[in-house]
Each structure stands twice: as C-alpha cells, then as structure tokens.
Amino acid sequence: MERSAYKTRHLVVDPGQPDAAIIQEAGALLREGELVAFPTETVYGLGANALNAQAVAGIFVAKGRPADNPLIVHVDSPRSLERYIDQVPPILAQLAARFWPGPLTLVLRGGHAFAPVVTGGLDTVAVRVPDHPVALALIRAAGVPVAAPSANVSGRPSPTTAAHVLDDLSGKIALVLDGGPAGLGVESTVLDVSGNCPVILRPGGTIQRDLEAVLGEVKVAPDVDGGAIAGDRPRSPGMKYTHYAPRASLVLFEGYDPGRVAAGVLDEARRLVADGRKVGILTYRETASLYDGQGYSVVVVGKRSDPGTVAASLYASLRRFDYLGVEVILAEGIASDGLGMVVENRLRRAAGGHVVTL
Ligand code: AMP
Ligand code: MG
Asked: Nearest ligand, CA of residue 126?
C-alpha cells in the first residue's frame, strides 16, 4: 500500500479515561496492518502489528529507518510474552515484578514468532510493557504484540507530543492518538539479559542505580555515547546511527564548573553572532541568567539539579530551535548521574562528536 497517500487522522484521547470506541478503532487498524502512533510514558511510539511482516516493514519506510535497526515489541503484560518467547528466563519475572509496566526494555533470546524484520535478523528480541493507560488499552484492543520505535523520522529528536509526530509523519501513517505530552520525555533503558551478565545497551528512563538494587552490578555497554561499537558485532544496532539530532548542528560544552562552561558558551555565541550565524543556547535554570539573549535564542531546558525536568523537555527544546530557524546550538552539558546520564547521552549523540571540554 502507498503510505504517502494517507490523510493522517489525529484523535485526542483523555489518558485518565481513554474513549473506548476510539481505542477499539485504533486497535482494529493496528491488527489489520496499519501504522498507529500513540503516547507512552517515555516518548510517542509508532506501532505496527509485530506478527505482520508487511505492517512492520511499513514502519521502516515511514521513518526512513535503517533495516538492521531492530524494534521494541510492546505487550500488555509479562504473561502475554509466554505465547511468543519459547523460554522466558527467570530474570524476566524478577525484573518485570519491579519495573513493568515501565521504561525498561529487555533483550531476550528467541522471538522467532515475530516478523523477522522486527529483530533485524538478530537471534534476540527487545520487549517491554509500557506504563501508559492509552498504550496499554491500545495493545489490548489490538490483541497482538505491537512493534513500536519512537514515532519520529529516523535521526530526529524523539516526539514527546502528537504535534511532533505530525510534524515528522503526517501523510505517512494512518492515525495518531493524542494523549498529551509524554511524561518522562526520554526513551526506555535497553537492558540485554540474553547473556550471563545484564548489560545496559542504551541508558534511559530506568536508571542504573535502580537496576543495580535488584541485580547487583550492571555494566553499561561502552558504545552508548556514540563511539565505536565494541566487540565483533553491534550489540544494539541502533546505537551506531546518528540520533536525537535537530536540523541545526549542536556543539556540546562540558566541564565541572557550570559557570565556566556558561562563560565559554557565551564567548562562542558572541563570536558566531558576529559572523552572522543564527545561534541558539540550551541552558538550565541555574545558569540561564548568565545570558543576555542579544542576537541569539536562549532555551531553558529544566533544572540542572533535577535532571527529570531536563529529560521531560529535552526533545521539545531541540525541536524548538528548528522552529526558530537556528543554525548552531550551543548546549551546556549536565552531570552524568541518574537521568542526567540519559540527557548527557542524548546530547552527545545529537552533537555527533562536537564536544568542547572546558
Ligand atoms: P527506538 O525504539 O527507536 O527507541 O530504538 C530501539 C532501540 O532498541 C535501538 O537502539 C535498537 O537497536 C535496540 N534494540 C531493539 N531490539 C534489539 C535487540 N534484539 N538487541 C539489541 N538491541 C535492540
Ligand atoms: Mg528512536
């Protein structure tokens, strides 16, 4: 089917009490092979029936996603996985009891029941139970597992509102369910439990400390900040691609002393403005007053001391620079602790190696 022929529908649902008729209709569309975007607690997802190869292939076309970047399968409960995974490992029950529904994706062996495009030819599959009433109701109404990456054009910042989804995918998908802004604002943590020791392949909404409280020491894969892929094969193929990037180029400024970092950002902004460039600064509540905004745009992304506030508005802030027509974003880094680690990881990837240490 020619997906560019779509007039994408936009239906608003109350997350507190999702309209049953709308959810049933959206579920039927999914089951029948259409693409439906929906809110989750992390970011908006672009769903397809994970048992239908043609439907899943449509996700890759709509997003322009490389075919070897596998998708996360969303289910409504750990029990429903038993139908699709031959041997559900004991560690799954332990992690599910503590973290599901929630922003934790588990990479397991198996998954052959799903369309092969879901796993990108790997012998593992990534699964999670989202913690959002609209997402859960939709998966139940569909009656099938739902493969869903973030509902953005590949490489762009993930969408945290239905408006972001429409900006990227209008005309390419059947429907977007609008449940208001996604709460957490960053993606799930991807934890590989297919081997002997659990490894974080992508930091996300479930922080390392909380995983360690259940599992003991948890390693973080060395490639998570966008460097070279460790080992002989990429463990999480998605990590090798440019990600989370606004249209503007982004330069990340890091250092222990936030005042010194801000001074460096200001110097660079003035130099670029004098050169006639359209500049934006990404800063935090604590350092925002150091910028006068003369000739450049300032976006305050949250409180440095409360990284959850930064995670919640990070992607919307990156998109705002695009709406402002900014060419170069100068972004202050944040301490890599808790959700700060997730924000720092996304900023580094958006910077694609343009990091200045002060
Ligand atoms: P997205 O849904 O766009 O946020 O991306 C999903 C992430 O999960 C990507 O980084 C994928 O590479 C990763 N992923 C999905 N399936 C697997 C798998 N079987 N093994 C390792 N990583 C995976
Ligand atoms: Mg994504």
From this structure: 1
Q: Are residues 180 and 276 in the same domain?
A: no
pLDDT-derived band at 224 (thresholds 50, 70, 90) equals: low
Q: How far apart (Å, rounded) are the C-alpha atoms in residues 13 and 136?
A: 13
Q: Which atom of ligand 1 is nearest to the CA of 238?
A: 12
Q: How many CA atoms lie within 13 A of 111 on its CB side?
A: 28
Lowest mean pLDDT among 16-25, 49-58, 86-95, 281-290: 86-95
Nearest CA to ligand 1 atom 10: 238
**Which residue's C-alpha comes closest to atom 19 of ligand 1?**
125
Q: Residues 113-146: pLDDT tens digits?
A: 999 999 988 899 999 999 999 999 999 999 999 9
Q: What percent of the chain has pLDDT over 70?
A: 93
Domain of 299: which CATH number? 3.40.50.11030
Beta strands in the chain (DSSP E): 9-12, 36-38, 45-49, 72-74, 104-109, 124-128, 146-147, 175-178, 189-192, 199-202, 219-220, 249-254, 279-283, 297-300, 328-332, 355-357
Q: Over 60: is that where the pLDDT of 225 sits?
A: no
- Which residues place a Cβ less than 5 A from the ion ligand 2? 149-150
Q: What's the confidence (pLDDT) of residue 232? A: 42
Shared-domain flag, residues 96 and 9: yes
Q: If you take atom 1 of ligand 1, which residue's CA is the nearest one?
A: 149
User: Would you call 216 exposed, middle or buried from its count of C-beta atoms within 10 A (0-12, 13-18, 19+)?
Assistant: exposed
Lowest mean pLDDT among 71-80, 235-244, 289-298, 340-349: 235-244
Give the residue numbers spanning the domain of 175. 3-190
Domain boundary among 146, 166, 190: 190
In a domain, 99, yes or no: yes
> Chain-wide mean pLDDT for the chain?
93
Give me the amino acid identity at 237.
P
